[in-house]
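In line with agreed milestones, work has continued on tokenised descriptions of protein folds. One protein thus recorded appears below exactly as we store it:

>
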Amino acid sequence: MRRKLAAGNWKMNGTSAALGELDMLATSHPAPGVDILVCPPATLVSAAVRTVDNRSIRIGGQDCHSETNGAHTGDISAAMLRDAGATAVILGHSERRASHHETSEDVRAKARSAQKAGLMTVICLGESLLQRQATNTLDIIGAQLSLSVPDSSNGQNLVIAYEPIWAIGSGMTPTPDQIGEVHDFMRDRLEQRFGSGVGRSVRLLYGGSVKAANAAEIFGISNVDGALVGGASLTAADFGPIIAALEAA
């Protein structure tokens, strides 16, 4: 059985004052029935690890470089994240693919480095509204999945997050049938590539305007093993009900 995962992406939000929310979240979920991952800004990773203090929440980064070290001013390697106490990293988020012009090949190189460093990689895939309207969503997702995921992946070091770009922060959410179609497709592709054992063990998350009001419906969809949550993960009051809905699913 795949253990469900509630992952929070704080994006470029949060200073040390926000660590109180993390402490409240850990206190209110001392023994959760699902895995909880929070990915704060890089400046807070070490402090976040100290805040959760080996309780029920894992801490991750939001990006890493494909190289272990070198002349890459401003970048952070997977080994550095691991040294700071992180156990996971988000890669290929649509905001980085767009704003930093990251290709799926770039994401694959980063994921290979992260997995080698012992980090769980949360690789994001998603289509734009124009691509959705052109009805070639599965072609887009299939290409991203094939090119972004390294051959070293397995059920322990890989999580896939489907985040339709047009749903992120927009308040718009795909229909359950649309989400289910993509998640079933990704599961089938993973099984074809890695075999049924690995293919069935990789967790598939949905992301894009997930909130307490729609979480239960989303978690009832085929092959949805949890969520990658943006804005609603910034406070314990908003993230807690989503975690509870996942535990009840």
